[in-house]
Amino acid sequence: MGVFENELGGRVCVQGYYPWTYLQNLSRSWQLKSVMRWLSRDTLPGYVGSYHKMNLWVRQADGGQTAVALTNASFDEAVGVELLLRTPAGKIRVWDMDNESTVVESVGTDGPYRKFPLPTIPPWEIRLVVTGEGP
After folding, report:
1. What is the pLDDT of residues 62-121, one digit of tens each?
2. % helix / strand / coil in the chain, to the nearest 5?
3. Integer distance in angstroms from the first to the last C-alpha of the chain?
4. Of 53, 84, 80, 58, which Cα lies nearest the Cα of 69?
5. Integer Cα distance of 32 and 100 in angstroms
6. Which CATH code, of 3.30.450.40, 3.40.640.10, 2.60.40.1180, 3.50.50.60, is assigned to 45-135?
7. How far apart are CA 84 and CA 48, in angstroms?
């Protein structure tokens, strides 16, 4: 892997891996997340900081509110999922598939991102997360 930043501020990362080799482990997951944060200059709206197989869709409204849909793409319960959001909000509301919600408070920061520990997510279930406590 090589990274480069030119004099105009453009950033590039070039990596090579043999297909399906050393791609799904903790160190590779951490490396990819770190590279994406560097490439984006920490402007990603959000990501899953923990080592979980999650699908994530993040949208930011003009008013500053962030909405996230995430799916546990695993056959195991996702326990201890850490969601990092680029938001000033100290709380999020998490809705499950039964339309029941839980308010979760931030437990810290990592640069411009706030860390939110999510409740356990069963296999192949989706969660809706919105910044702020909401209704």
Report:
1. 777 899 999 999 999 999 999 999 999 999 999 999 999 999 999 999 999 999 999 999
2. 10, 40, 50
3. 46
4. 58
5. 33
6. 2.60.40.1180
7. 6
